[in-house]
Amino acid sequence: STMASMMCIVLAAIVLAFCFGVAETGPAAYGICQTGCNAVAVACYAAAGVTMGTVTAGAGVPAAVIACNAALGTCMAGCVAAGFAPIP
User: Fold this and answer.
1) What is the pLDDT of residue 42?
2) pLDDT, tens digit, for every residue of 77-87?
3) Residues 27, 84: contact at Cβ < 8 Å?
């Protein structure tokens, strides 16, 4: 549903904010951030009524799953910045 998709995008933004605000930068922050993104993606899939890892790309994919995947991609891209930032 649209509400589930929006909720997942908000959760992904919170995970990214946590990664940049609390964790130190570097490889550990990258791993922590990825874990958070994946946890949000699993919750997003569950909210859409689908089990993560059981849906393949195709014409019959629900819009909520596509939104979950887009949010996961955005979240993971943000993690790259956390991984490459200089360690204080």
Assistant:
1) 92
2) 888 887 776 66
3) no
